[in-house]
Amino acid sequence: QRVVLMDPSEDPDDILRANRSREKTFVFDMVFDNTATQEEVYVSTTKSLIGGVISGYNATIFAYGPTGTGKTYTMLGTDSEPGIYVRALDDLFKGLEATAEEMDYTVSMSYLEIYNEVIRDLLNPSSGFLDLREDSRGSIQIAGLTEVSTTNAQEITQLLVKGNKQRTQEPTAANGASSRSHAVLQVTVTQRSPRRGTGEEVRLGKLFMVDLAGSERAAQTQNRGKRMKEGAHINRSLLALGNCINALSEKGSGSRAQFVNFRDSKLTRLLKDSLGGNSRTVMIAHISPASSSFEESRMTLIYAYRAKNIKTQV
């Protein structure tokens, strides 16, 4: 459960810094090394949340980290090693079929990306940029987003692969296929009892799976021009997310009442319920073992360590 971060530039003969090591230890709920399989990561992070979605809670899974550390691999995976998307949906449909006798269920999904602070529908990219609106109950809706109802995990997987091909990817010096946008997969499960009783009970559970764009330093990705602007937008929305996480993690500690600014970016507005609201949330932070990305790894670990202190009342 422990990550030890060593400073690659540390010199044992440096007298001035003899007692000031920059080695840091972080403790997490779960730590995976380079030998961990997709199955292990899925079982120990996400599998326990699926039952909750079926019984009407919301669940959110984040993949966070610097560019090139494997977020898209964890979430989408490859054909031979499927990622969290596919495994979670498989389990979801298995769980729903087990309750099919007493409940009728419908599953609908939408897949969108947030790129340069505009929202694009990945299942229907020709629809252009979409608006974020709040309905009368205060839940955030995206006007004009395609929702696809489906009955098995295979269909969803095909849609995901198709949608992922529409994602904005550009090569940078740090990563050949760098995702330049945040992708949000939203699966909504609605269950209602087939018996027409007096108290008609409808259970609604939402599963958000978010593959964030990589945080990056312009010096490392050597971006110029348009790429540089994209990078600034990516970092700005991740900073907004970081500010929300900071405010939420201080909220429980009884210090002064913290205002959580969810309106700073489209990403945080969309995820408002999954961060502070009625949701069970898992954040999977990715770091690279390379010594050249020491600073990024350090920032990511600090970020993830803060996120661990958020307490929500589901």
Automatic annotation (TrEMBL):
Report the SMART domains cross-referenced here. KISc
Kindly list the places in or outside the cell where this protein is found, as annotated in its UniProt entry.
Answer: Cell projection, Cilium; Cytoplasm, Cytoskeleton
**Leader peptide range in chain numbering:** none
**What are the BP-aspect GO terms?**
microtubule-based movement
| Region (Disordered), start-end ranges | 163-182
Q: Gene3D superfamilies of this UniProt entry?
A: Kinesin motor domain (3.40.850.10)
Which Pfam family, just one, is annotated for this protein?
Kinesin
Could you name the Gene Ontology cellular component terms for this entry? cilium; microtubule
Residue stretches making up the Kinesin motor domain:
1-310
Alphabetical UniProt keywords = ATP-binding, Cell projection, Cilium, Coiled coil, Cytoplasm, Cytoskeleton, Microtubule, Motor protein, Nucleotide-binding
Q: Locations of Polar residues compositional bias?
A: 169-182
One of the entry's Gene Ontology molecular-function terms is: microtubule binding
**Quick one: which residues bind ATP?**
65-72
Is ATP-binding given among the entry's keywords? yes
Which family does the record claim for this protein?
Belongs to the TRAFAC class myosin-kinesin ATPase superfamily. Kinesin family.
Task: Tell me, in a sentence or two, what this protein's role is.
Answer: Plus end-directed microtubule-dependent motor protein that regulates the length of motile cilia by mediating depolymerization of microtubules at ciliary tips.
Name of the protein in question: Kinesin-like protein
